[in-house]
Amino acid sequence: MAVKLYKPTTPGRRFASVTDYSALTKKVKAPKSLLRAKHVQAGRNNTGKITVRHRGGGSRLQTRVVDFIRTDRKDIPGKVTAISYDPTRTAFLALVSYRDGVKRYILAPHGLVVGQMVLYSDTAEIKPGNRLSISNIPVGTFIHDIELVRGQGGKIARSAGNSALLQNIEAGFAMLKLPSGEIRKVRVQCAATIGTLSNGDWMNVRLGKAGRSRHMGIRPSVRGKVMNPVDHPHGGGEGQNPIGLKYPKTPWGKHALGVKTRDKKKGSKNVIMKRRGKK
Fold it and tell me: Worst-scoring range by mean pLDDT, 1-10, 49-58, 152-161?
């Protein structure tokens, strides 16, 4: 999938780019049973406190219900009837119609086309869109929508252009190299889908103007060093001054960069063989 550019008819158009949606199926409405309203939390947690700043507003969205488990469709072939866009996701979706009349959305890998058959089975072919247990997937295959716990549905490698590399299978565990560079062990009974996810050029899109950020629910952000000292630890000074402190701080005076936030007692530490960012 490519990135589309426009003639610079306005200042906003000059540097903006959009995803080329020409590969999507046109004039196919999403089934109402697979649509849900997307409620905007505006960066607030369950107690109403803002935990993520600079969020709020944006366009009203309807998200599509995606089948990340597919266990009740096991050994039932399905036909891809449409490749669709989801405003709440970066990857495209494939609308699958099964022989018993059931329709489901799945994440669309690169190379999946309308009319192709997909299958979740332990004997399925190794081709994009098919889902198998990791024990039945050859080493060296790129996979996505990977389960961490059997039967709970895919949790890893679900965004546009992402996939994990199956490096090795040994002693009941599969060694996966994740998009972040982390190397992690996953039980071979867990399921995964073959292929790399679609819309890999999504990361190259340039918004071009502030209005597109507001439509996405992103509010303006102000640098700390251009504030007054009363408003931010970095504030004050004459002109373009650097931070002037030993380390960057948040508006509340706490360390901002390089702070380890992972729980040292987290149970999954035993299955992570190599942390992301480490050589």
Answer: 1-10
- Residues making up the chain, counted from first to last: 279
Q: Taking Cα atoms as reference points, which of 273, 266, 243, 240 lies closest to residue 256?
A: 243
Dist. CA 80–CA 195, nearest whole Å: 16
Q: How many CB atoms lie within 10 A of CB 194?
A: 25
Q: What is the pLDDT of residue 279?
A: 64
Q: Which residue has the tokens 């059931």?
A: 102
Q: Are 247 and 233 in contact (CB under 8 A)?
A: no
Of 190, 140, 132, 135, nearest in space to 163 by CA? 140
What's the token pair of residue 241?
């001054």
State the pLDDT confidence band at 257, using cuts at 50, 70 and 90: confident
pLDDT average, residue stretch 103-132: 94
Amino acid present at 145: D
pTM for this one?
A: 0.89
How many Å apart are CA 55 and CA 42, to the nearest integer?
A: 5
Residue 85 structure tokens:
């866009």
Beta-sheet pairing, 164-170 with 173-177: antiparallel
Burial of 191 (0-12, 13-18, 19+ CB in 10 A): buried
Domains and CATH numbers, the chain: 3-203+264-274 (2.40.50.140)
115, exposed or middle or buried, with CB in 10 Å at 0-12, 13-18, 19+?
exposed
